[in-house]
Amino acid sequence: MSERHGVIVGISGASGAAIGVRIVERLAENPHCAVHLVISPAAERTLAEEVGPEALPRLRALAFRDHAVSDIGASIASGSFPVGGMIVAPCSIRTLSAVAFGQLDNLLVRAADVQLKERRRLVLLVRESPLHLGHLRAMVQATEIGAIIAPPLPAFYLKPQSLAEIVDQIACRAINLLNLPDIAAPALKWHGDR
């Protein structure tokens, strides 16, 4: 077995908390992956409201390490700590803007900034609609400094049969954007595949 890849999963307070949960579940199933989890206070509330009161303790149990969002001195706040990349799912506009413009006031944003400065993959599942020009400019800024903006949009061409299938498809797509072969999510089947 090869060495385990550390992957940071940040969950911020935007709607779509189930996507972050599914990403952590998928990564935790993989023996090649060690999940480092950072959850914002707003995300704790969203998790409870959208997924249920058991979501937060379950996520913390699945993670290799659960980091307090206030712990700015955590290992993942340093570029010398080796990880394969980071996914923020869902990514609120507040978190997007903080990443885009270097406002590093908590561990979630600091860890994201470290990925950018170390030229590692940072995938932001920005969850907002409609978008105004300020949102779009923050997305452009984040892209220009190296982030991958991946709004959590369903792949309707896969003909999903349930909300769970849609969430899983989005989670797998985000994981695969990290481009880490040992932790690639399963390939999604097109409706004509057998």
From TrEMBL:
User: Which EC class, in a word?
Assistant: transferase
- Tagged with keyword Transmembrane helix: no
Annotated Flavoprotein domain residues: 7-169
Q: Look up the EC number in the record and give it.
A: 2.5.1.129
Residues binding FMN: G13, A14, S15, S40, S92, I93, R94, T95, R127
Q: Where does the chain bind dimethylallyl phosphate?
A: Y157, R173
| Keywords per UniProt | Flavoprotein, FMN, Prenyltransferase, Transferase
Q: Which domain of life is it from?
A: Bacteria
Query: Known catalysed reaction(s)?
Result: dimethylallyl phosphate + FMNH2 = prenylated FMNH2 + phosphate
One Gene Ontology molecular-function label: flavin prenyltransferase activity
Q: Does the keyword Cell wall biogenesis/degradation apply?
A: no
HAMAP family registered for this protein in UniProt: ubiX_pad (MF_01984)
What the protein does comes down to:
Flavin prenyltransferase that catalyzes the synthesis of the prenylated FMN cofactor (prenyl-FMN) for 4-hydroxy-3-polyprenylbenzoic acid decarboxylase UbiD. The prenyltransferase is metal-independent and links a dimethylallyl moiety from dimethylallyl monophosphate (DMAP) to the flavin N5 and C6 atoms of FMN.
NCBIfam families, sorted: PRK06029.1, ubiX_pad
State the family it belongs to.
Belongs to the UbiX/PAD1 family.
**Can you say what this protein is called?**
Flavin prenyltransferase UbiX
Q: Which organism is it from?
A: Bradyrhizobium diazoefficiens (strain JCM 10833 / BCRC 13528 / IAM 13628 / NBRC 14792 / USDA 110)
Lineage in the entry? Bacteria, Pseudomonadati, Pseudomonadota, Alphaproteobacteria, Hyphomicrobiales
